[in-house]
Amino acid sequence: MSNSSIPVIDMSPLMTRCVEGQGEAASETQELVSVLSSAVASHGIFAIVGHGIPQDLMTTALEATKFALEKGGPAEIECWAEHEAKARIVGSDGGVPSFSAAGAENVGCFYGNANAPKELVAKFTVFPPHWDSNPTLLKANVWPITSAGQTLRRPLEQYFAKVQCASDALHRGLSECLGRPRTFIEESLTPHTDGALRAMRYQHKEEGSEEMAPAMAAHKDLNTTTLLCSDAPGLQFQPRGSEDWVDVIVPAGALIVNLGQFFEIWTGGAWRATPHRVIKAGQHGRTSLAFFSNTGIARSSDGSTPKDRRIEPIGGLSSDSDADGETSAWSGIQTAVVGEARKSIAWPAFYFERVADLASRQQANIEGVQAGRGGA
Ligand SMILES: O=C(O)CCC(=O)C(=O)O
């Protein structure tokens, strides 16, 4: 399609398991796997259509997010951050909060830039809705008990169900691209097959503001895939082997897919996680829904540690055989220790390690601000 800066792939042959009574057509699926293989081995970012999420649900979920998280909107007026802090005293695992106010998180700071500019993005994280009715789990969603909270809840829960299904289908296709059986990703990560959804509202640029700093700093995601839907442009990616930033342009209704670092590990760097960032939102702000596959990590209320799965290179694909035939040394994925990289990780132990590291950087950043040293 011409109105796109990245490949656009029709997922419908893989979505049939989500539609009762339909089987997959082998020839169409083969063709899809071949198109997908080219997309993942080049820049690691592509768009999907035929993903099974109705356009009106995408629009409603985006609008509900914009309304709830807008500057001066219900989340601020109803003090969702305080509500969240109180709810977390009981039954919290100390991990990612449900609500995070604009400026509270700073991706630039997380990734080592102590003076990274403030990121004015309010975020509401939805954990797998089935956690809420499971008393054996430590964590449940903290939905504000206000009309705005409930107005946000319904479309985000509906969107979660659909996007989890699209993510599962995509994983079946990507397993085949890796030269493995269709269940490879699911079986490699079970029981950590749920994702987490972050609904985000980027504040609009103040009139006269010339600031060029990104609204969200450059980073790679620590998971399999991230499925993104937004109401305005702003996302940029760095093509393989380039320092340039390219605007992501996709047709209406398409979801953007970023490959995460698990694929770097599985392929020894032959596929790479997409470096991406978000530039400052224009006068109307920006809303996005980011579904991070495999990061909804359930923790049991008995305090036991979640079972670890090892993510490690699989044979057959390596950095010596990337898409362009180029040899690129892959040093592994970075850890909390500067200069240290790992070529395999235990999941979710590595996730908890990173969350703890990010929390301590965030704290240091807050203390820096309080001491008048700048930062977020
Ligand atoms: O809002 C977007 O489009 C991207 C969000 C993102 O990269 C993230 O939350 O990690």
Question: Can you give a write-up of this model?
Answer:
The chain is of the alpha+beta class. The protein has one domain (8-320, 333-374): B-lactam Antibiotic, Isopenicillin N Synthase, Chain (Jelly Rolls). Helix content is 30%, strand content 17%. The strands form 4 sheets. The protein has an 8-stranded mixed beta sheet. It has a 4-stranded antiparallel beta sheet with strand order 6-11-8-9, with no helix packed on it. Strands 13-16 form a two-stranded antiparallel ribbon. Helix 1 packs across helix 6 and helix 2 (55-69) crosses helix 6. The structure holds 2-oxoglutaric acid.
Question: Which of globular, elongated, flat, extended, rod-shaped describes the shape?
Answer: globular
- Rg computed from alpha carbons, rounded to a whole number of angstroms: 20 Å
**pLDDT below 50 for ≥5 consecutive residues: which ranges?**
none
The total strand number stands at 16
The tally of structural domains comes to 1
What is the strand arrangement across the widest sheet? 1-2-10-7-12-5-4-3
| Mean pLDDT metric | 87
CATH H level, superfamily name: B-lactam Antibiotic, Isopenicillin N Synthase, Chain
CATH class: Mainly Beta
Report the helical percentage. Answer: 25-40%
Which percent range describes the beta-strand content?
15-25%
Through-space gap between termini: 40 Å
Organism: Polarella glacialis
Protein name: Fe2OG dioxygenase domain-containing protein
